[in-house]
Amino acid sequence: MIDKLAASVAEALTGLEDGATLLLGGFGAVGQATHLIEGVIETGARDLTVVANNAGYGQVGLARLLKEGRVRKLICSYPRIAGSTIFEELYSAGGLELELVPQGTLAERMRAAGAGVPAFFTPTGADTSLARGREIRRFGNRDCVLEEALYGDVALIEAWEADRWGNLTYRAAGRNFNPVCAMAARLTIAQTQHLRRDEPLDPETIVTPGIFVDRVVHLAYGDPIT
Amino acid sequence: MATATTEWVPLSRHQIAARIAQDIPEGWYVNLGIGVPTLVADNVPKEREVVFHSENGILGIGPAPEKADLDPWLINAGKEYVTLLPGGSFFHHADSFAMIRGRHLDLCVLGAYEVSSRGDLANWARSDDDTAPAVGGAMDLAVGAQRVWVAMQHVTKSGEPRIVETCRYPLTARASVTRIYTDLAVLDVTPDGLQVREMVAGLSLEALQEKTAAPLRLAADR
Fold first, then answer.
1. B residues 58-97 lying closer than 8 A (beta carbon) to A
2. In chain A, is it the N or the C terminus that has fewer CB atoms within a 10 Å radius of its CB?
3. How many domains does chain A have?
């Protein structure tokens, strides 16, 4: 019988290694797998590369992981938000490598990884300093920059509802990067607000099919943690 | 005695937003940037259906909620709480940016530090060595939307022109902006340069030119 349920955050994170690339869902506080991210601290993993839209805020989730010194490199579109003080301190002190990626390119690089597309050209950013030193080709009347797929070792995502097959739904703006991260990592771990252990989700409403999900942990913590 | 008057009043942020809203027809799919652009939504008449898109996966954004109706799972790209209008939908980030990059949006309204006379846009970083830069969806929107309009103050706080021959700030995209709405004027970016469509009452073209670091002429069809 297929059963992707893990009994705890620690069990869900088994096998996470030093130097891993982590893909994190979430946009601001909404749809962020806060408990899994904080669970990474307990595993002791370090020298991590973290891919996320934002660089954490306050003292929770990614901000805590950064503060603990576990992250070597951040691949991010909008690191500076209200409350991102831990990121700002680390970055200005030179304690963190930052690769800044336009938000759509960040999503598409992960989608490409999940879809087996090793690289693609896009006009986004081609005329800017972010394309410095990169391959540019002209398609039609537009310069385009070559962008490579962004693969993860582990994706940490948050769902609204899950079943034992790893099928997932999301709530409102909580969807954001989660389905994209799910398809781009070798190991995808979801924390879910609601669980249907044996009763399958309605196949017409599933957003992320279980093929993209390896482990599910049930954490009914309620509203986004701000 | 009649004298040449220099008495003109710049538009407020809300008035700039209201002026932009006049030009958005029913049925358009529109993304609004942070700041003055966000205010545009409140100025579209209720009977005119315009669908607002948010980068984080929402079509059909409505006004801010009353406290009692606040849904903590429903935020916009500026991470403010919003509502969803009938006909709205949720989708993931790759689809959201497929809408932007795949040229499905009719319009994007953005703020800017500078715009050049060729429509080059600078709105994401103040310098090449910005201490903690953030780009977000600015570059995707600037190349992807069918039309890019800018809402901004005509000059900086110290009176320097923001409409220039060549941007000094780092570029977001080249030849992107087609129309500029400022507190003083509405300008079209055309292959023949900047054309003034409107000015606030009492402002002369000469006075506007003094505040603009690129040549202006009046639009022939204004």
1. 58, 71-75, 79, 84, 90-94, 96-97
2. N
3. 1
Q: Reply yes or no on whether B55 is catalytic.
A: yes
Q: How far is CA A166 from CA A180, A187, A206, in A?
A: 15, 12, 10
How far from the centroid of its chain's Cα atoms is residue A56's Cα?
12
Give B28→chain A minimum CA distance, Å. 21
According to DSSP, the residues that pair with B107 across neighbouring strands are B30
- ipTM reported for the complex surpasses 0.90: yes
* A141 within a domain of the structure (yes/no): no
Q: Which two tokens stand for residue B18?
A: 């209201």
> What would you report as the CA-atom Rg of chain A, rounded to the nearest whole angstrom?
18
CA dist B217 and B189 (Å) reads 11
Residue B127 is predicted with a pLDDT of 84
The beta-carbon neighbor of A79 closest among B91, B134, B172 is B134
pLDDT digits (tens, 9 = 90+) for B114-130: 999 999 999 999 887 77
Candidates A102, A110, A173; nearest CB to B135: A102
Task: Give the torsion through C-alpha atoms of B43, B44, B45, B47, to 10 deg.
Answer: -150
Are residues A62 and A68 in contact, defined by beta-carbon separation less than 8 angstroms?
A: no
B212 contacts B163 by C-beta, under 8 angstroms:
yes
Mean pLDDT confidence for B156-161: 97
Tokens describing residue A186: 């070798």
Torsion, Cα A196 A199 A203 A204, to 10 degrees, reads -80
Among residues B55, B114, B206, B210, the one annotated as catalytic is: B55
User: Domains, chain B, ranges and CATH?
Assistant: 17-218 (3.40.1080.10)
- Note down the domain range covering A155: 9-117+151-218
Closest to A153 measured CA to CA, from A18, A57, A1, A5: A18
Contact B131 A92 (CB under 8 A): yes
Q: Do B137 and A104 touch (CB under 8 A)?
A: yes
